[in-house]
């Protein structure tokens, strides 16, 4: 996954670097505020790819004495900085440039050839980067059995998700810039150009908010996927040595690295040697079944009916949400198949 993410980021970095220079030159030559806003957008995207490459390099470091759980959360930190970069370098500048254009209300004529040529090249380059991100995420979604949209929402890997979000915003931003420049040319009023720049800024602000919210939760310590939580609870409960799961805590240490902490109530008749043997066996079984579990802590403890019941209710709630999600996904797949059959019949 890390190598795929690195290739996706490198493709985006190359595309955005070239596009940023072309848009900046076209914006300075044409005087278009929406083109300058798009240049700021591409500069922000280029900087963000550097952040994402840094995150992949840092997160690959092995655990050490100062960081016993590894550096996996570095991806969350640098992805959060990428979200901040989108907002500051992209959204704020775009809105400022648009407001400045509206206030000045310039009637200066703007050409179409250079801006549209640059936007056309940008559309093609961004499209290549966008397709690369979609291909990676679609491959991952097949492995998890989710739809593409469902996988993007559930994935804890911020790298490809950030590239896809940036490229989607970039493609929409190019269309907005084209509309603003075209209407400015037709009407002679820069209001349309300024309005397009503001719209681009608001679009970037929305993307930055969503990415920042997701990475914020992961930085704070987001729980593992509900399927893993439910599966671990059921697997532990199935051991004959276990009378109850008192508490089950999970946290993402990285996109594909999970910490699991379990307090379990064991049968009173077990000897110390039997408890040790069971602990080793349970750890071996769980880590083999869920490779994302990199840290597992088992704590045999005294019975606690209240906490055990609370844990059971939480797992049952996750189980219900998971079942509903799978049912909705199955229904969507059936509808898509029915539409495809109808289209072929026509």
Structural class: mainly alpha
How many distinct helices? 10
The level of helicity is over 70%
Name the average pLDDT: 83
Give, in spatial order, the strands making up the sheet with the most strands: 1-2-3
- Quote the distance from N terminus to C terminus: 40 Å
Biggest sheet overview: 3 strands, mixed
Radius of gyration: 25 Å
Shape by Cα distribution: elongated
Strand content: 5-15%
**Unreliable residue stretches:** 327-346
Query: Which H/E pattern describes the elements?
Result: HHHHHHHHEEHEH
The total of beta strands comes to 3
Q: What is this structure's SSE topology?
A:
Elements: H1 2-30, H2 33-59, H3 74-104, H4 113-144, H5 148-154, H6 158-187, H7 191-220, H8 226-237, E1 242-254, E2 257-266, H9 272-289, E3 293-300, H10 305-345
Parallel strand pairs: 2-3
Antiparallel strand pairs: 1-2
Helix pairs in contact: 1-2, 1-4, 1-6, 2-3, 2-6, 2-7, 3-6, 3-7, 4-5, 4-6, 6-7, 8-10
